[in-house]
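// run 5 | inverse folding | seed 20
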C-alpha cells in the first residue's frame, strides 16, 4: 500500500523499476484525493475506514481461500477502533464555536471531522504546506490571533520543532491557550494506530472541556 497524494512518490518510482509489479492500494486514489491536496490521510477518520475497506478487499481478491480470515481480522480491528470513534464523538459534541490553530496542517482532516474551525492565518498555512518558512507578517498574524484568544487550542507537531513553531508555541502559552502535542507518524512506544490516535484525542478532549 502507498499513501499517494505525492507523499511517498519514491514508492511509485521503486515499483516502476520492478519487472513484476506487485498488487498495490493507493490510499489517495481510494479516498478521492489528488497531488496538491493535504496528504495526511491517516488523520481523516472516514479516510482511515475507506482505506481499510480497500486493503481488505484487495487481500480477499488476491487470496480468496483466506477471505474468512481477512474478514475476521478486519472485524477485530473495527472493534479495537471503538475507543477512537467514542473519543471523536465526545469531542464533536462540545466543539461548536471552538477553534484551532496549527503549526502544520497534518491534523486538519481530523479537526474538520471534530467540528473545529481553523483560525491559522492563510499565509502561514500555505507556507507550511509548501514546506517553506512563513513570512514575518504571517507569524505576527498567528501570534495576534493567539493573543486575542481567537484560537481555543494550538495543535503542535512535536516531530518538526524549530524556531518558528517554538515561537508560536511560546505565544500560545503566554496567552494561556491550550497546546496539544501531536505527531505526524506513530511515535516509539505506541502499540497500534488506534492507541496512538486515542492518546492524542484524549488530551485534546481535556483541552476542549469535553470531559467536564
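// decoded
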Amino acid at each position: 500500500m502507498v499513501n499517494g497524494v505525492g507523499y511517498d512518490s519514491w514508492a511509485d518510482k521503486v515499483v516502476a523499476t520492478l519487472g513484476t509489479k506487485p498488487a498495490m492500494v493507493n490510499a489517495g486514489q481510494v479516498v478521492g484525493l489528488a497531488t496538491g491536496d493535504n496528504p495526511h490521510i491517516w488523520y481523516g477518520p472516514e479516510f482511515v475506514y475507506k482505506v481499510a475497506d480497500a486493503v481488505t478487499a484487495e487481500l480477499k481478491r488476491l487470496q480468496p481461500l483466506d477471505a474468512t480470515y481477512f474478514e475476521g481480522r478486519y472485524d477485530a480491528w473495527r472493534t479495537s477502533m471503538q475507543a477512537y470513534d467514542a473519543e471523536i464523538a465526545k469531542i464533536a459534541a462540545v466543539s461548536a464555536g471552538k477553534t484551532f490553530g496549527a503549526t502544520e496542517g497534518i491534523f486538519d482532516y481530523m479537526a474538520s471531522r471534530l467540528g473545529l474551525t481553523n483560525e491559522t492565518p492563510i499565509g502561514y498555512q500555505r507556507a507550511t504546506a509548501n514546506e517553506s518558512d512563513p513570512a514575518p507578517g504571517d507569524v505576527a498574524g498567528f501570534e495576534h490571533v493567539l493573543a486575542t484568544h481567537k484560537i481555543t487550542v494550538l495543535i503542535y507537531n512535536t516531530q518538526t520543532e524549530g524556531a518558528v513553531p517554538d515561537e508560536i508555541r511560546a505565544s500560545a502559552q503566554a496567552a494561556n491557550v491550550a497546546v496539544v502535542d501531536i505527531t505526524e507518524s506513530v511515535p516509539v512506544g505506541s502499540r497500534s494506530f488506534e492507541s496512538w490516535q486515542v492518546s492524542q484525542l484524549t488530551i485534546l478532549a481535556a483541552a476542549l472541556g469535553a470531559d467536564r
